[in-house]
Structures are given as structure tokens and as C-alpha cells.
Amino acid sequence: MAQLTQPQQTRAGAAGLIPRETAALWAKFDWVLFGAVVLLVLIGILFIRSATLDAVDPDLIGRVSSQILYAFMGFTVLFIIAAIDYRLLGALQPYIYGLLVFSLALVGVAGQVGGAGAQRWLNVGIPIQPSEIGKMLIIIALGQHLVRQYNKLDRFPTVIVSIIYMAVPMILIFIQPNLGNTIAFTVIWFAMIWGAGLRLRHLAILITVALLALPILWLNMEDYQRQRITTFVNPEGDPDAQFNVDQSLISIGSGGLIGKGYANGTQTQGRFLRVRHTDFIFSVIAHEVGFLGSSTVIFLIGVVIWRITRAAQLARDELGSLICYGVTAVIFFQTFTAVGMNVALLPVTGLTLPFVSSGGTSLLSLLFGVGMVQSVNLRRRNA
Prior knowledge:
By secondary structure, the chain is mostly helical. Helices cover 71% and strands 2% of the residues. The protein has one domain. The longest helix is centred in the C-terminal third of the chain and has 34 residues, at 281-314. The chain is globular and about 55 Å long.
């Protein structure tokens, strides 16, 4: 194809045929990050299908179609958010924070009650879990808050204010009850304030206070939450709860190098492995496609984390970097936790394996986060 001369480019741009500024902007879109995310979502849909084959529970029957629907919505959101300047989102900080607190408070009033009596969902035509979307909203709000306090981060009162800022939504999430996402918010706060320049002396004080507060946290946890931790420490104390973990270990161990074959795992198709479409999806993958398949998933998530970290390094300002740090923290923490509980290194928490586990709002939230990272990428300084 013949290359247009400069005057031709100018006339074409003026005619709206080649919007050069838009083309230059989208040229920085990270296709490696996008490709890794697409592959993870496809893998998730495939193994949710395998985990729910021949299901008779109406909730399980619709899991695949639901995941596909949320994936389409999520990728649409990804491109819309990428097109919006993340600095504009930062400027909307008070409204975003207010929306987050309002939606979490609304859950307590009009939320739907799910498993174990947890009240976490709102029905807005489709079920939405505000605490999941909230992880991305708080990244924007906290990022802008920290940017405004950059010159005061050497003062301990500034750190305390940031904790109070986070405490309001965290308390609303904890009382749903939702301990997993409460911890996720804590991880987000730590990753972002560390990236903003948290002083080591302040960190030491906070760790000491946190350790002293652990008994208070324990007393305010639900019985089933305490049971998950005690079962992890003493598996013989609750054989029924430990059954899930044991079956997960059997599934992973029996998968070997290449697995039993897609949709052909005795542990999954025989229904020995419970909640296999959500909490134990990693075990399904390891069982059916073995070490090679499960390692591929970990590798792809590693690529996602690498590309987001790269975006943080190339960001043109502090807000862009902090947004990327926050999204990285969510993906890393949930991956570490999801895989850890599948191999009995951590208590079962219910957090999803990013982009893979069944969970529409979780997938939507993560794709929203990738959209924010792409927005930072599109406006980065030249590498």
C-alpha cells in the first residue's frame, strides 16, 4: 500500500478518514497484556464447562452462559475505560468514593442473601457484587487521595487518614460478612501506600497495632470463617470441611504431567471435588490437563502481572503508577490465595482465581481494572 504524503495525511485526517491523534494513542495499547487476559478468560470458560457438565442444579447449569455474558460485558467495559483518560477518573474521586460507600451500604439494606447467610449482592437486572467492583473503584479513589498527600507521606497522621479513608468501605464489606475481600482491600491499601512512599518506621508501628488487634478481629468473625481457619490449623477437627481440601490435593496429584484429559477427570466428573467451578477451579485444571496445563495458567497470570508492572514504570505520573500498583496487588493476591488454598497452603477463603474462576462480577471487575491499566498505557511517556 502506498504511503500517504504529509499533505495527504493532513487532508485525510481533516476529512475524518485517518484520525491520526487517535491512531497514535491506540498504538500504545498493550496487546500482549490483552492477549494474555483473553486466553485466561477462554481457559476459564472451558473449565467451568468441564466442572459443570451434566449438572442438575439450575445455578450450575447456567454458569457457562453467565460467564460468557459477563466476559462480553467486561471486554466492552475494558475498551471504554481504556478510552477514558484515567486522570479524568481521578478528578471524579469524591463521586467514585461516594458511589462505592453508597453501594456497599445499600447491600446492607436491600442486598440479596447468598450462601452461609452472606448478604453481598444487588440485583440491577443482573446480579452484581459491589465489593468486587469496589476493589477497582477504591484503587482510583485512594490513588487520587495519595497523590494529593504526596508531600505529607512522611507524617504519620497522613498515613492514619489513609487508613480511615479505607476503613469505611472495609467495615461495610466485613459485616456482609466478606472476610476475603476485606483482606483484599487491606492488600490494595498496603501496595498503593507503599508505592507512594510509606516510611519503614510507620510500617513497624502499623504491624504492631495490627497484631494487637487480631483478637478483636477474631471475636467479630462469623463462626464459619473461624472454622475455616481452625480446620486449616487442625484438619482432624472438621473432617467434612477438610474433605474439600483433601479432594483438591488428590485432584492435583493425580493429574500428573499432562492430566486425565479435558472433561475426563474422575475427580471432577465423579463430583468428588466440590465447588470446583469457583474455589477449586485450579484443581480441575491440574487434574484434567496436568502440570503443563496448570503451569500455563500461572505463566499467563505472570505475564499479566509483568505487563501491568511495566505500565506502572512507564506511567507519566504518580496516579497512573498507583492505579497499576493497585490492580497488580489484586491480581497477585487473589492468585496467590486461590492457588494456595487449592494446595492446602492457605485456608479456604472463597476468592476467585483471576479471570478463570466462575464469578461474573469478579470477572467484570478485573476487566475493568485491565481497562484502567490500558488507559495508563495509552497515555504513558515514550519508552
